[in-house]
C-alpha cells in the first residue's frame, strides 16, 4: 500500500475566479465566530449569506471557462496518481526500473486489484512540495520513465491484466540528458506498442495532459477525463507565444484550443467525462476517487466482451477516426 502523504490540512489555495466565494466564506466564518463569542444572534444574517453563497457557487462552478479549468487542473493540492491509487485500488505493489538505465520517479506503476480483478496501474507523479517536486522532476518523465511504463504494459499483456494509465504531466522532460537517452524514441515506441496491446487499456487524464508526455500513456481503448482536466499538444501559454508572440494571451488560447473535457467529449476524442466534486477534485479526495472507480468499472465492463484482436481493432479505429471532418 502506498504511503504517499495525505492532503494538506491547511486551507486550500484559491484561484482567481473563486475570489468572490473566498470572501463570502470568510465573512460567514467571521459572523459565526462573533455569534459564538458575543451575546448577539446573527443567525438570520448568516443564513442569508449562506443562501447567497450556494447560489454564487452554482453560478461560478456551472459556468466555468476553459482558463478556469486550466487553473483547477494545475491546483497545487490536486490529487496525484499516488493519492488515488490507495483509494481506488487494493494491494498495490509498486514496481521500479526500466531494466536499461534506471528508475524514473516521475512515472509510478505496479500491480493492484480492482474489485477483485488484477490490473496494472501506471501514472505520472508530480510532487506536493519543493523537495518532492524535484525528486519527481515536476511530473515530467525522462525516457527511462516511459520505458518502465512500457515494460509494465508488456508484463500486463503477458498475464492478461487490464492496464489503467493515469495522466498528469505538463509534458515529457525536454532537457539535454533526456534527449541523449532517446526521449523521442521512447515516446514513439510507447505509441506503437500501446496500439497493439491485446488487453484492455484505459487512459484517464486526472490533471494536465500535456504534449507527447501525455500521449505516451494515452493510446487507450477508452480515454476518460476528469471534468476540470486538460488534454492538449501544447500549453495555452506555449500556444499563445507561437500564435500571437505573447504568452499573456494564454486565456484566449485556452478557449481557442478546445482542450477541456467538455470540448473533447463533444468532439468524440474522449469516451467519458468524470464529474468532479464541487470546486475541484482537491476539495475531497475520497469522493473523487469513488467517482473515478465508478467510471473505471463501467469502462472495463464495456471492454470485457472484446477479444484480443477486437481490442486492437477498436483502438485502431478510435484513433483513426480522430480528425476526420464531415459536413
UniProtKB/TrEMBL annotation:
Keyword presence, Translocase: no
Catalysed reactions, semicolon-separated: N(6)-carboxybiotinyl-L-lysyl-[protein] + acetyl-CoA = N(6)-biotinyl-L-lysyl-[protein] + malonyl-CoA
Protein name: Acetyl-coenzyme A carboxylase carboxyl transferase subunit alpha
Residue intervals of the CoA carboxyltransferase C-terminal domain: 48-302
Subunit architecture: Acetyl-CoA carboxylase is a heterohexamer composed of biotin carboxyl carrier protein (AccB), biotin carboxylase (AccC) and two subunits each of ACCase subunit alpha (AccA) and ACCase subunit beta (AccD).
Subcellular location: Cytoplasm
UniProt keywords, alphabetically: ATP-binding, Cytoplasm, Fatty acid biosynthesis, Fatty acid metabolism, Ligase, Lipid biosynthesis, Lipid metabolism, Nucleotide-binding, Transferase
Family per similarity comment: Belongs to the AccA family.
Enzyme Commission number: 2.1.3.15
Signal sequence residues: none
Main location: cytoplasm
Enzyme class at the top of the EC tree: transferase
Organism: Planococcus chinensis
Amino acid at each position: 500500500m502506498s504511503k504517499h502523504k495525505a492532503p494538506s490540512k491547511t486551507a486550500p489555495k484559491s484561484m482567481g475566479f473563486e475570489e468572490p466565494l473566498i470572501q463570502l466564506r470568510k465573512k460567514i466564518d467571521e459572523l459565526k465566530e462573533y455569534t459564538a463569542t458575543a451575546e448577539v444572534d446573527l443567525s438570520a444574517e448568516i443564513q442569508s449569506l449562506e443562501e447567497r453563497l450556494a447560489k454564487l457557487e452554482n453560478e461560478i462552478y456551472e459556468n466555468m471557462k476553459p482558463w478556469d479549468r486550466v487553473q483547477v487542473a494545475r491546483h497545487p493540492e490536486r490529487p496525484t496518481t499516488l493519492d488515488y491509487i490507495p483509494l481506488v485500488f487494493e494491494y498495490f505493489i509498486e514496481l521500479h526500473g526500466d531494466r536499461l538505465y534506471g528508475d524514473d520517479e516521475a512515472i509510478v506503476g505496479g500491480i493492484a486489484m480492482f474489485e477483485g480483478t488484477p490490473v496494472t496501474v501506471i501514472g505520472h507523479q508530480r510532487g506536493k512540495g519543493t523537495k518532492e517536486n524535484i525528486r519527481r522532476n515536476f511530473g515530467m518523465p525522462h525516457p527511462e520513465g516511459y520505458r518502465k511504463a512500457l515494460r509494465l504494459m508488456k508484463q500486463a499483456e503477458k498475464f492478461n491484466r487490464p492496464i489503467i494509465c493515469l495522466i498528469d504531466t505538463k509534458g515529457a522532460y525536454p532537457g539535454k540528458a533526456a534527449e541523449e537517452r532517446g526521449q523521442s524514441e521512447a515516446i514513439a515506441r510507447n505509441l506503437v506498442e500501446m496500439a497493439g496491446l491485446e488487453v484492455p487499456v484505459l487512459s484517464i487524464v486526472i490533471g494536465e495532459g500535456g504534449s507527447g508526455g501525455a500521449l505516451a500513456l494515452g493510446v487507450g481503448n477508452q480515454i476518460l477525463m476528469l471534468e476540470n482536466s486538460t488534454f492538449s499538444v501544447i500549453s495555452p501559454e506555449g500556444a499563445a507565444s507561437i500564435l500571437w508572440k505573447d504568452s499573456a494571451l494564454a486565456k484566449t488560447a485556452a478557449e481557442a484550443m478546445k482542450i477541456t473535457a467538455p470540448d473533447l467529449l463533444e468532439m468524440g476524442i474522449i469516451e467519458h467525462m468524470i464529474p468532479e466534486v464541487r470546486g475541484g477534485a482537491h476539495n475531497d479526495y475520497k469522493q473523487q476517487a469513488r467517482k473515478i472507480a465508478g467510471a473505471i468499472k463501467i469502462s472495463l465492463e464495456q471492454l470485457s466482451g472484446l477479444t484480443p484482436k477486437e481490442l486492437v481493432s477498436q483502438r485502431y479505429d478510435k484513433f483513426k477516426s480522430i480528425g476526420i471532418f464531415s459536413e
